[in-house]
Amino acid sequence: MLLSLLPQTLSDRFGTPQSAVPDRSRRNAAVAVVVRPRAQPAGSSTEPPTIARSDVLLIRRAESKRDPWSGQMAFPGGRLDPRDPTLAAAAVRETLEETGLSLLPDHDLIGRLPTVRPVSVHIPTVTIWPFVFRTAPGAVAWAASPEVASAHWFSVASLTEPANQSTLRYQAAGERGSFPCIRLDGCVVWGLTYRILIRLFDL
Prior knowledge:
CATH architecture: Alpha-Beta Complex
Number of strands: 10
CATH superfamily: Nucleoside Triphosphate Pyrophosphohydrolase
CATH class: Alpha Beta
Number of helices: 4
Order of helices and strands: HEEEEHEEEHEEEH
């Protein structure tokens, strides 16, 4: 899909970013799904940017006993704070704090994806709001917070490559199961992050 068509497609399917209202019965968190078009090689014909020719920003969370997602791959983001005027603003603030990447709500925000909630009873009762942002080719992100071990730009082509699709066997706190995942460059993308990515790729 052309990136130019993404805002209208997201709005038609999931509503505008402005329609996101915090869930009063649960905690709320917001994450940034940052799409970065890949730079065109010098001298090549200019083609309109598409999702397939873009990168997506993911972070590896630092190891911490206080973090239920300790060490996992995730989107930058975090809990809604009373100082955040909107859920999308929370995603912008957390992305800057965690990766040093400055997003502009009035320019880079292009839509939102449906909310996701943890299925495990051992995870906090939280509603997670994914917002989609488009950044410029060459945008840089890094581990800017002690809560982040590393930051990664993964190409959509690699994330959707059949050879990188796998299964993760998980066991913790008396729960066990097998979950679909993506294995790429020594990283395993699964759980809530995987579910959000699949919704983006299904557009």
